[in-house]
Amino acid sequence: MTYPDCTHVIGGQPVAGGPRFMDVHNPADGSRLGRVPLGDAATVDRAIQAAEAAFPAWSTLPIKERKTDRRTQSTQKRAAQEDILSRTLSTGGKK
After folding, report:
1. Which of 3, 39, 49, 62 is the most exposed place for a label (fewest CB within 10 A)?
2. Predicted pLDDT of residue 50
3. Which residues are paired to 15 by β-bridges?
4. In terms of Cα–Cα distance, which of 19, 11, 14, 12 is closest to 39?
5. Please, is 90 exposed, middle or buried when counting C-beta atoms within 10 Å of its C-beta (0-12, 13-18, 19+)?
6. Residue 63: enclosing H or E segment and its boundaries?
């Protein structure tokens, strides 16, 4: 089983990784499961700029809206739980 390349998420948008990637292998059999991008200085700078740009608007949101935002993120995380579990078990060498 292989997975598509992971991406960075900057400013809420997927950002292709590279030019360098790191392979992720299944420790049980050594097979390649996928790749993760290695962020370079430019990618980190872009992420910092996006966070700094988003902070003023976020910091003025009422707590109720911030909680709604966090609930949405939590729901999305739960929806991806099966995929996360599958990847975790694969990289841990368990069936």
Report:
1. 62
2. 95
3. 8
4. 19
5. buried
6. helix 63-79
Per the CB < 8 A criterion, the answer to whether 10 and 46 are in contact is: yes
| pLDDT tens by residue, 41-70 | 999 999 999 999 999 998 898 888 877 777
Rounded distance between C-alpha atoms, residue 22 and residue 31, angstroms: 14
**Amino acid (1-letter code) at residue 29:** D
CA-based max dimension of the chain? 51
Span 13-39, average pLDDT: 86
Q: Which amino acid is residue 62, in one-letter code?
A: P
Q: What's at 94, amino acid-wise?
A: K
Residues 6+ away with beta carbon under 8 Å from 67: none
pTM: 0.61
List C-alpha distances in Å: 5 to 8, 51, 62.
Answer: 10, 24, 37
Residue 95 pLDDT greater than 70, yes or no: no
